[in-house]
UniProtKB/TrEMBL annotation:
Keywords: Lyase, Schiff base
Pathway: Carbohydrate degradation; 2-deoxy-D-ribose 1-phosphate degradation; D-glyceraldehyde 3-phosphate and acetaldehyde from 2-deoxy-alpha-D-ribose 1-phosphate: step 2/2
InterPro entries: Aldolase_TIM (IPR013785), DeoC (IPR011343), DeoC/FbaB/LacD_aldolase (IPR002915)
GO molecular function: deoxyribose-phosphate aldolase activity
Enzyme Commission designation: 4.1.2.4
Class of the enzyme per the UniProt entry, highest EC level: lyase
Protein name: Deoxyribose-phosphate aldolase
SMART domains on file: DeoC
Swiss-Prot/TrEMBL catalytic activity: 2-deoxy-D-ribose 5-phosphate = D-glyceraldehyde 3-phosphate + acetaldehyde
Gene3D superfamilies on file: Aldolase class I (3.20.20.70)
Length: 335
């Protein structure tokens, strides 16, 4: 039984003893893992609504949490009018996401602060890899017919392989929503296994497009199947759906990560994407990760946030912490 502070959110028939493990290599398909899965929507809503109201961080502590959040941002540009110059500017911001004077005032000038990754379409992978050379910041490529995920399967695999060949160290894949909506879990598992194999050494983030698969039960089951098939991260959204990341959806997904950890001993990462655009909102997600999964999920190897405008608001909040004054957003350009 997986419990919140008050009522059960997700019920499971049983758990296996956890053990130490490394990268998620997946497990054999086993539909019994979905047996008895139930989502208590009212309990999910109560728990999620309490995250922003029950706890807050202030002053120096808030500045520290926001600096940590920067290191977990997948700084993203996924627009139809992207250009190589825009991607290069984004990479420059990823290398130096906070102004030097603010880092000096915060006593962090000696600490390397970069974003978690830069996320682009395949066309710009090589551009981003070249622009980030020597920084340690990885390039993530959206793939498999992003955002709809309706390309032929063989073409999806070729796209993954091409991005890896160009230097992408992370691949954000899109699952086929139809498999989830029709309950074809074997097809979803097989698709995800193929994506995982095509990625090779590159880490794979499985985008569930939660706004399209509709129910919390579907989200819970799709999360578990993708992890069974070897996803290193599960991710809420493409950012292109009508509804993207929400705390309700995220709570269900991190509970599935917790269940998978209990069954296999393998730590899987989580990435909310779309709609996390303010410092206040990212703090709520950090609190969610800390309370539900623990301290390890505040680090970029297990927690990422897909965002673009978020970084500007965080830098703005840091300037307010240092100076006591809010500045205009145009003082904190991203790209």
């Amino acid at each position: 039984m997986v419990e919140t502070a008050s009522k059960s959110v997700v019920a499971w028939p049983g758990r296996a003893q956890s053990h130490a493990s490394a990268r998620n290599s997946g497990v054999p398909f086993d539909l019994s893992w979905l047996d008895g899965l139930r989502v208590n929507q009212a309990a999910v809503s109560r728990r999620a609504s309490a995250l922003g109201a029950r706890r807050s961080v202030k002053k120096d502590a808030q500045a520290a949490w926001l600096l940590k959040a920067i290191t977990c941002i997948d700084l993203t540009t996924l627009s139809g009018d992207d250009t190589a110059a825009r991607v290069e500017r984004l990479c420059a911001k990823a290398r130096r996401p906070v102004r030097d004077d603010l880092l000096d005032a915060l006593g962090m000038s000696a600490q390397p602060v970069t974003t978690g990754a830069v996320c682009v379409y395949h066309r710009f992978v090589k551009t981003a890899v070249d622009a980030l050379e020597g920084s340690g910041v990885p390039v993530a490529a959206v793939s498999t017919g992003f955002p709809a995920g309706l390309n032929p399967h063989a073409l999806k695999l070729k796209e993954i392989e091409a991005s890896v060949a160009d230097g992408a160290r992370e691949i954000d894949i899109v699952v086929t929503r139809e498999h989830v909506l029709t309950g074809n879990w074997q097809a979803l598992y097989s698709e995800m296994r193929d994506f995982r194999a095509a990625c090779g050494d590159a880490h794979v983030k499985a985008i569930l497009a939660t706004g399209d698969i509709r129910t919390l039960s579907n989200i819970a089951k799709a999360s578990m199947i993708c992890m069974m098939a070897g996803a290193d991260f599960i991710k809420t959204s493409t950012g292109k759906e009508g509804v993207n990341a929400t705390l309700d959806v995220s709570l269900v997904m991190v509970r599935m990560i917790r269940e998978y950890l209990a069954r296999t001993g393998v730590e899987v990462g989580f990435k909310p994407a779309g709609g996390v655009s303010t410092a206040k909102s990212v703090l709520q997600y950090q609190i969610l990760m800390k309370e539900e999964l623990g301290r390890a999920w505040l680090e970029p190897d297990l927690f990422r946030v897909g965002a673009s405008s978020l970084l500007a608001d965080i830098e703005r909040q840091l300037e307010h912490h240092v100076s006591g004054r809010y500045s205009a957003f145009n003082r904190h350009p991203v790209a």
